[in-house]
TrEMBL record:
Coiled coil: none annotated. This is Crp/Fnr family transcriptional regulator. It comes from Sphingobacterium daejeonense. InterPro entries: cNMP-bd_dom, cNMP-bd_dom_sf, RmlC-like_jellyroll. It holds the Pfam family cNMP_binding.
Length: 190
């Protein structure tokens, strides 16, 4: 719990009062999930904004032959089917844990209460949405401007100790290549 407070205080560059923090954490739930647990399925409405304490989570579009992985979330990152969370419309993708994962989660309705009843709530909400937006924007620009090899190198540089725990087929999908092409990239690098 203190990890989340430190994250937010660092991000918003101000101390959160004990009163507001107590109110905020009263709305959070800590949940543990096993490896390969589906957090959100296509067609469901996302009810949570989650903060990853530990673990690896992926978002993907399920396909008959090969799923299309489009993002990963690691320790100290937010994860949500955020478009569904905001619009209250069904998700068009799945969210799944790749490892045993601990999430701190807040329900949509509770977040609305925090927004309306605390000053810090809007700063926290803005920080979460900016974090998710920047991650999405970085991903889009990477797909448009970088080679698959550079996308792989970036992922490896950003999370070297965690990337080794992700199956190669998901990494290949994420960087937009086949597993065979990823194998060739890895041979060139190593």
């Amino acid at each position: 719990m203190e990890q989340i407070r430190q994250y937010f205080e660092h991000a918003i560059q101000q101390r959160i009062s004990d009163k507001e923090w107590t109110f905020f954490v009263s709305k959070l739930s800590r949940q543990e999930f096993p490896k390969k647990h589906i957090l959100l399925k296509t067609g469901q409405i996302e009810n949570y904004l989650s903060f990853v304490e530990t673990g690896i989570v992926r978002c993907y579009i399920p396909k008959l032959e090969n799923d299309l992985t489009f993002t990963f979330a690691f320790d100290n990152n937010f994860i949500s089917g955020y478009d569904s969370f905001l619009t209250r419309k069904p998700s068009t993708y799945h969210i799944e844990t790749l490892t045993k994962t601990i999430l701190w989660r807040i329900k949509y309705t509770d977040l609305q209460v925090i927004y309306s009843e605390t000053e810090i709530g809007n700063l926290i909400g803005r920080q979460a949405s900016e974090d998710l937006f920047l991650k999405k924007s970085k991903r889009e620009l990477s797909l448009l401007n970088e080679s698959a090899e550079q996308r792989y190198r970036n992922l490896f540089t950003e999370q070297p100790h965690l990337i080794q725990r992700i199956p190669l087929k998901y990494i290949a999908s994420y960087i937009g290549v086949t597993p065979q092409a990823l194998s060739r990239i890895r041979k060139r690098i190593y």
